[in-house]
Specification:
Radius of gyration: 19 Å
Structural class: alpha/beta
Oligomer: single chain
Helix content: 25-40%
Order of helices and strands: EEEHEHEEEHEHEHEHEHHHEHH
Length: 333
Amino acid sequence: MERRTIGAATLRVGAIGLGCMPMSWAYTASRRSGEESLRALHAALDSGVSLLDTADMYGPFTNELLVGRVLRQRRAGAFVSTKVGLLVGDSHVVANGRPGYVKRACDASLRRLQTDVIDLYQLHRPDPEVPIEETWGAMAELVAAGKVRALGLCAVGARAAQRRPGAGMHDTTIRQLDRVQQVFPVSCVQAELSVWSPEALDSLVPWCAARGVGVLAAMPLGNGFLSGTLTPGQGFEPDDVRARHPRFTAEMMAANQPIVAGLRRVARRHGPEVTAAQVALAWLLAQSPHVIPVPGAKRAAWVVENSGAAELRLTEDDLAEIAGLPAALGSWD
């Protein structure tokens, strides 16, 4: 499998990663299976997918425990990425970027993950009550202590209603990146990026590319929509994040079917075994050598399918057709 570099630290991973969140967070709980998730994690490593992306808040904590069961056996073949900065309450999530908390949280993550070092430690959300330089400084101390190898920041794009006229979606994140770069190098930025959410390509990906910073493309399959496996009007259980997402109403799912149809047309040109999901991931790989898609999956078959996108080479005609697809409707804006 093709290898890509995360940051100036030259940490190398496969071209496709695995987002572990759906195994225990945000998606329908009734369809989760610990044993199936373990098979998916092993299938990822068997397929050359080394980057396993998790967070302490997923579960909370249970996602790291799950990944740790695999790392205990196969740490040498894995690149482990986790996150800090969010605390989960009964009905809310709050940010905590206090230096003391960050250090305690790292130690707890190391125990759950059953490893002595985290390859990539990401700030999940900045704490509005703590200067980001203080949080980042504590994370840098973890690198100096040998507990962490590299640092990353998760980007939160400001939607149109939240930003000043003329401002870009990721302007706030870029200002934060400029600030923390003065404290310790940023190796990676994680942001939503997909065929139906391409906004990070406008300024965030160029910022990263100019500095040799990796980009983890979160939700690269549009929360499953771009795989073409969801049916308009199918409904979602109340605990599924898509039940509250404006692109997943029956009306909007039907209106956005031309996007999936376009991906399927491209897939057919590459053979009967190629899927819309693989085309969506290959499109991301074609955008920049710094981009690493991290599709979420909780079944081994999906992990293997996604990993195959690393071998798919889209033509100029393919890329032009995808560029001409209609913009997604029903966004948060």
